[in-house]
Design goal:
Length: about 200
């Protein structure tokens, strides 16, 4: 079973991101579940959602405490929450920022991960460019499809088109493709230090 924990703030589509990820997994013939963990949080308050993906039925229902992957939709959360808590030693990290992990002061938290398992991408910038709104969730799923080999980009795009039909869906698809390409291009570029986590940043 592959477990994903998504951190963000109210209004950023954190819950929708988990649901879309589960939808994409279903489209690949896998079992999946998605659910949030929040109470009466207002817009801007920290929110967490979870997604589990497996080849068979998923019976566990508790929050994901030992994630195989983290998607962080708002980098400001790094200042007050240990988003890396419980991350698997060979896990994946996708952080929404135009800065590097070193710039954010958390390079030590991802240094031990396998090369290419930790990336940053300016998802909010891409959302503003293609959607006209600072909603990074769909953008990050496109990036995640480039980071995690078990997720197919076509499945993500199909989930987006179903959830957001028409012109809105196509704009989300364009933004997700752009993020996917940014991460994929970085993976093809040799890093100065092969042991250092790769980062896909946008000016």
């Amino acid at each position: 079973m592959f477990q994903v924990r998504i951190h963000g703030r109210g209004g950023q589509g954190v819950v929708t991101a988990a649901e879309l990820l589960a939808d994409a997994a279903f489209r690949q013939g896998r079992h999946a579940q998605a659910f949030p963990s929040f109470g009466s949080e207002r817009t801007g308050a920290p929110v967490v959602s979870y997604c589990r993906i497996a080849d068979g039925p998923i019976r566990v229902r508790e929050p994901v405490l030992a994630p195989d992957a983290l998607i962080v939709q708002d980098a400001t959360l790094l200042r007050g929450i240990d988003v890396f808590d419980g991350l698997a030693p060979d896990g994946y990290v996708l952080l929404n920022t135009r800065r590097t992990f070193a710039d954010m002061g958390v390079a030590d938290r991802v240094a031990a991960l396998p090369a290419g398992h930790a990336v940053t991408v300016a998802a909010t910038d891409l959302a503003l460019e293609h959607l006209g709104r600072p909603l990074p969730n769909a953008v990050l799923l496109g990036a995640f499809a480039a980071l995690y080999p078990g997720l197919d980009l076509d499945a993500v795009l199909a989930a987006l088109r179903t959830r957001f039909p028409g012109a809105v869906g196509e704009r989300n698809v364009t933004a997700a493709r752009a993020a996917h390409d940014a991460v994929a291009a970085q993976a093809e570029t040799p890093a100065p230090d092969a042991a250092a986590p790769k980062e896909a940043t946008r000016a």
